Amino acid sequence: MTLPIFLAAALTNLTGIITFEREGLPFYFMTDDAGAYWRLERRTNDTARIGDRVSARGRREPSFVKNRLETLSLTVLNGDCPRSAGDCPQAREVTIPELFEGILPYGSAAWYGGLFTTEGLLRDINRRQTTTQLLVGEGDHNLQVEIPWALEDALPANLVQGATVRVTGILAYTSIEDYEAERFARIENVELIPVSGDDVKVIRRAPEPPKPPFWTGKRVASILGIAGAVVLLLFVWIATLRRMVQKRTRELADSIRQRETTRIEADAARRERLRLAADLHDGFQQYLAGAMFRLKAARNYLPKDAVQCREQLEKVQDALQHTQAGLRSTLWAMNEESEGPESLMALFGFAARRMAHWEGKVDIRTEGTERSVARKSAGTLLLIMQEAVGNALKHGQAEHVRVRLSFGVGLLTMSVIDDGCGFDPALTGESGHYGMSSMERRCTELGGTMSIWSKKTLGTRLDFQIPCA
């Protein structure tokens, strides 16, 4: 038994100062009398606040790179102590690169749970139902900052992408460890957790783009050309003014009616997709889940010698699971297609940002001048991309996946390249997974082709070539 597991089996007693507490979160952070940082499990009846001196007792969770306590008792020893008071732990000033240098590659108990203040560029804002997540970075490093601002709350006017912000909060991350073998893998989801929105300050506004001078040579030439054309047209329109006005009026009326009809049809189609997605999720999806539950129960009632019957039921259950996975992917694409932007590249980026586990692993870029793609085709391509990236992360154990969209003459090429473990393409039909055949079928429906290259330990490349206007 390794040392962390041995320590986790015994009870640990701590005294120190609470450095983090936020309503709705099931944990505290504290600094003990020896200066070490701890994460304490918050129980229902605990009433400690920031600055309180407390005594905690519990079981230490096994970890090499963080101090976490499964709290059995928590006692407040003395009353309020403002955060600014000298005997309370103060936030440590660090830069984002210094912070990552301290915790990479496996994490560090000397940093996890510490109270830090840092500055960085606001690169993204993600509004959620009950919180707002900021992406703050410097250079190649990015921190997540989750603030308790609900979706209906108004953000500060100067809190926009491109601004420089100052953040104070507790450092936390997810660590991947094998305790018994004493091996480390990596850390993920590095974040600073502020107590409130007051801990995020804009210290430098986002720069405004420079305005071009009005009197450029091209603009002057355009104005002179327009003036000359107007003078020429005045002579021509004297005889035909009434007929042209009537014709123009009819054209404008037809154009307005056509745009309005198109807008109404697009809006109706979007609402119908969302309604259909909701009906399938609440109805058919639940029926599939119920059917699989009943199949599993039926297998448990079979006698041990009913091997062939059990095998057939297992095949039925596998088919239902495949159907449920395909339905879930289709529902995801229908929602993203309905809510996302019109551009294919923007739609891919919009969908990827809403997949939290893709953060830092999936890179989507375009080559060549992007051209318009039909909305239905864009939804199918989104499904193919989701399946390919999901296979790379789940089955290929890839660390990085590159998605490249290349617009050629009459042809759109989408390539998905990963650095995963790879596989033998000749054995895809025997693996028990239907992802490859599903992607190939969808690609064929669009009139395109799919090619596969993969080798063990060298990763996988999938290329999809789709005709486009």
Structure explained in plain terms:
By secondary structure, this protein is of the alpha+beta class. It has four domains: 3-78, Beta Barrel (OB fold (Dihydrolipoamide Acetyltransferase, E2P)); 92-204, OB fold (Dihydrolipoamide Acetyltransferase, E2P), CATH 2.40.50.140; 268-339; 341-469, Heat Shock Protein 90 (2-Layer Sandwich), CATH 3.30.565. Helices cover 37% and strands 29% of the residues. It is built from seven helices and 17 strands. The strands form three sheets. A five-stranded mixed β-barrel has the order 1-2-3-5-4. The chain has a five-stranded mixed β-barrel with strand order 7-8-9-11-10. A five-stranded mixed β-sheet has the order 13-14-15-17-16, covered by helices on one side. The chain is extended and about 100 Å long. The mean pLDDT is 80.
Gist of the model:
This protein has about 475 residues and is α+β, with helices and mostly antiparallel strands. Helix content is about 35%, strand content about 30%.
